[in-house]
Amino acid sequence: MAILSRSGAPAGPDGAPAREWAVATLLELAPGYRGAVEDDTPLAEGGLCLDSIALITLVAAIEDRSGVALGEDQLCPEHFGTVARLVRLLESIGRRHR
């Protein structure tokens, strides 16, 4: 499944623009978060405060919607440290699976 929005822009696993999908999904996983979700917002400590269960749920959402299993090497702060890093991962999945 290609991960592109209708306009052809990089998108999240459900076809929405990657950042839009990421923010919507993250806010579902962090219902108590009341701050702005910026590119540099951490997903865990100091930001959205996602715990390990929420991060696993996020990984499952990415895999379910994209049809792509994330490799163990992808489950790291490089990809899950901040909103911007997550968006880059989503865009990368989209480019590889067009």
Structure description:
This protein has 98 residues and is an all-alpha fold. It has a single domain (18-96), classed as Orthogonal Bundle (Non-ribosomal Peptide Synthetase Peptidyl Carrier Protein, Chain A). The chain has four helices and no strands. The protein has helices at 18-29, 52-66, 77-80, 83-96. It is globular. The model is unreliable at 1-8 (pLDDT under 50).
Features:
single chain; 98 residues; mainly alpha; Non-ribosomal Peptide Synthetase Peptidyl Carrier Protein, Chain A; 0% strand; disordered N terminus
Summarize the structure.
46% of the residues lie in helices and 0% in strands. It is mostly helical and 98 residues long.
Low-confidence stretches: 1-8
Named at the architecture level, the CATH assignment is: Orthogonal Bundle
CATH superfamily: ACP-like
User: Strand content of the residues, in percent?
Assistant: under 5%
Give the proportion of residues in helices.
40-55%
Secondary structure layout plus pairing:
Blueprint: H1 18-29, H2 52-66, H3 77-80, H4 83-96
